[in-house]
UniProtKB/TrEMBL annotation:
Signal peptide: 1-21
Organism: Streptomyces haneummycinicus
UniProt keyword annotations, A-Z: Signal
Location of region: Disordered: 225-271
Protein name according to UniProt: Uncharacterized protein
Length: 271
C-alpha cells in the first residue's frame, strides 16, 4: 500500500459516522477502470486532478444491524428497488479546503421503481424518490500532502450508489431532530447499515456495482460462496436470485429485539 490515509469522518446514508481506513482496491479489471473513468468525468473540476489507482474504502459503525432478513424486518419501514437518476457533488467546507484534505460527498437522487416489502408499523408510506448522501472522493493526503490528489471512495461491504445501476435497499424513516450539535436535522430516509443495500442489475441480486466496482453474476456468486461459511448475510444468501426470493424470506422472517442506534444522540424529535 503506497500511503496511509489520515482518519477522517463523514455522515452518509447507511452508517452514522464512517472512518476512512487505509484500504485500497486495485483497479485491475477493465470494468473497474471504466467505472473509475466515468466517475472521474462526473467529478467536474476533480477530473483535472491526479487520481490514485485505487478506491479508498470507508469503515464505520452501522446505525442498526442489517445483515439478515430478521434485521431488515425489525428496523426497516420499506424494502425498495431503486435507480440512481441524478447526482450532485457536495463540496467540502472551507476548513477542509484550507487544510488541504477532506471529503467530497455526493447527493444522489434515487427513484423508487418498486416497493418490495413494507412493515405494518411503518408511519410513512414509501417515497417515490428520495435523496441519499453517498461516498464520493477524498482529496489530499498524498505524497507531500498534495491536495490535488483525489481518490475515489466507497463504503466497505456495500454499493457506492452509481448512475446506470440498480439496487435493492432497506430504508427507515428518521423523524426530524432538533437541538443536535449540527442544528436541526430534517426528516429523511436512511439505510440501516452497510448490509441494507444490494446490487440489483439485470434483476439479479449481487450483480452490478459493489464497493465502486462492477461485478458479474458469476463473480458475485463466487464472492458469496467464499464468504458464506463465516458471513451469513442477505447479500450472500440471495446472490444470484431475484427480488421475489428475498420477499419470500422477508415475509417469513420474525423481528428480533431492537438494539439502540449508536449514532442517535439524546435529542428532541421536532414537533
Amino acid at each position: 500500500m503506497g500511503r496511509t490515509a489520515r482518519i477522517v469522518t463523514a455522515v452518509v446514508g447507511t452508517a452514522a459516522t464512517l472512518a476512512l481506513a487505509a484500504t485500497v482496491i486495485s483497479l485491475d479489471s477493465d470494468e473497474a477502470k471504466a467505472g473509475a473513468r466515468q466517475e472521474q468525468s462526473a467529478a467536474g473540476n476533480a477530473d483535472k486532478a491526479s487520481h490514485s489507482s485505487g478506491i479508498l474504502l470507508a469503515h464505520g459503525a452501522d446505525r442498526h444491524p442489517s445483515e439478515t432478513a430478521a434485521d431488515w424486518v425489525t428496523y426497516a419501514d420499506h424494502v425498495v428497488e431503486v435507480t440512481p437518476v441524478t447526482e450532485t457533488r457536495i463540496e467540502p467546507d472551507q476548513e477542509a479546503v484550507d487544510r488541504g484534505e477532506g471529503l467530497i460527498l455526493r447527493d444522489v437522487k434515487l427513484r423508487v421503481d418498486r416497493v418490495l416489502w413494507s412493515s405494518e408499523e411503518a408511519t410513512e408510506t414509501a417515497p417515490q424518490t428520495f435523496n441519499w448522501t453517498a461516498h464520493g472522493w477524498m482529496f489530499g493526503g498524498g505524497e507531500d500532502d498534495d491536495s490535488s490528489v483525489v481518490t475515489e471512495m466507497a463504503g466497505e461491504g456495500e454499493p457506492r450508489m452509481e448512475l446506470g445501476h440498480h439496487y435493492i435497499m432497506a430504508i427507515e424513516w428518521q423523524e426530524p431532530r432538533c437541538g443536535t450539535d449540527d442544528g436541526d436535522i430534517p426528516g429523511q430516509w436512511r439505510g440501516l447499515g452497510s448490509g441494507s443495500s444490494l446490487p440489483y442489475d439485470a434483476s439479479t441480486i449481487g450483480q452490478g456495482e459493489f464497493e465502486g466496482t462492477v461485478r458479474s453474476a458469476d463473480a458475485a456468486r463466487a464472492a458469496a460462496a467464499e464468504g458464506a461459511a463465516s458471513d451469513s448475510t442477505v447479500l450472500n444468501e440471495f446472490t444470484g436470485g431475484d427480488a421475489s426470493d428475498l420477499v419470500d424470506e422477508l415475509t417469513r422472517a420474525e423481528p428480533v429485539p431492537e438494539e439502540p442506534d449508536p449514532s442517535a444522540p439524546p435529542v428532541e424529535v421536532c414537533g
